[in-house]
Amino acid sequence: MALAKGKRRTGVSAMSQGTADWSERAAFVGFDWASDHHDVIVVNEQGTIVEDFRFDDAFEGWQLFRTKLGSYANPAVAIETSSGATVERLLEAGYAVYPINPKAAKRYRERKAPSGTKTDRIDAWSLADALRLDGLTWRALKPDDPLTVELRLLCRDEIGLIRQRTALVCQLRAALGEYYPVALQAFDDWTSPSSWAFVEAFPTPEALHQARKRRWEKFLHVHKLYRPETYEKRLALFAQVRAFCGSKPAAQAKSLLALALTAQLRALQNHLDKYRERIQELFAQHPDHELFDSLPGAGAKLAPRLLAELGNDRERFDSPQALQCHAGTAPVSYQSGQIHKARFRIACQKLLRHTVHLWANLSREKCPWAEAYYRTKRAEGQSHACALRCLGQRWLKILWKMWQTRTSYDAELHQRNQLKHGSWVLNLMTSKTTGLAAGEA
After folding, report:
1. What average pLDDT is seen over the chain?
2. pLDDT digits (tens, 9 = 90+) for 373-423
3. Which of 127, 167, 170, 243 is most buried, judged by most C-beta within 10 A?
């Protein structure tokens, strides 16, 4: 997001806080990491290569790395990632770690090798020299406390397991569609264990036909599926199961696949329940849990994810714009001469962007101003996703201020601030309320 004229960001001073004086650094380390080995090049203040080696990602290899760097005072390390086991080992060893964006790393490599040559050694060299020349303005990573780290890893892994569950559900629906269309018509939510139980109790159309009405009714009551609006419809579908179904060979083959998928779904759901329990336990222990728990619409699932991604280092995001760019709600600006454009931001923390998208959508039910803002964006011709991204942009500005001041969300205080600053959203809500009252009169 472009800065307004006359305003100046103070991020450089914030970046240098808590770090050693740059002039004291005698070694700049370029670290090109991989899964089984790492390439390292160390340059001095003049840019001369003083160390050039590769080591295996093993205990002996890391001992070699620490030994070779032990003779240099206060070395700084540039690496093309900001998370993972390699970064954790570097931080635990006490090194100043400077992550670099992969796109920026590519440009630094092209500066060293304009011909397009790419090797692990050139990658490490370009990182080391980039750190030497430009690292003064970069922000060093700060290790989060163990509670936040565990919570972040759990939330990210939970999202990964949920995606696996979605994939299994899609496979199950595809299998049922080939031989058991009545099952798909009778049940809408296939992430529910009751839907899996139906396949387990009646794996084929023939099994459902032979069970008869009494067992159908018992199944619906046992699994608490008796609903006046769906009960008769389901019984009618069950009674017509033979009228439209797959062939007998298809039913015999695909029913085994369906049962295998439901078994996997149950096992996966058991682990998801354990993840949810542990996440709630850690979230309750975190000193910022009341702050994030107060966010309208965040709820028990999204609040821990937001907390985990922001962490507890208040210097990490020196402005609301920094957080908005990290979350992907801020557009990327392009200006050249009289050309002014903005496009969707691709480089961001994808899980945080997804979380903000869900949170913005759920906040519409809790906050009238959020719903009014969303409707206004839709009326302007924006898509649903774009309107939510704009709403998320506003929410992140509020969240950043709450996070910096360690205060919970106060709807009345927010409304007073809107009134104080003459917010157009508040004016829109007031005009709608006035128009509704006039219509009733």
Report:
1. 89
2. 999 999 999 999 999 999 999 999 999 999 999 999 998 887 777 777 767
3. 127
Top pLDDT among 244 and 304 is at 304
CA distances for 297 relative to 120, 165, 291, 328, angstroms: 46, 24, 13, 20
Q: Is the pLDDT of residue 11 over 50?
A: no
In the chain, the percentage of residues whose pLDDT exceeds 70 is 90
* Domain boundaries, given as residue ranges, for the chain: 20-137, 150-282, 291-440
pLDDT in tens, 183-226: 999 999 999 999 999 999 999 999 999 998 999 999 999 998 88
What CATH number is given for 20-137 in this structure?
3.30.420.40
Q: Which residues partner with 77 through β-bridges?
A: 29, 97
Supply 85's token pair: 């086991």
d(CA 356, CA 373): 16
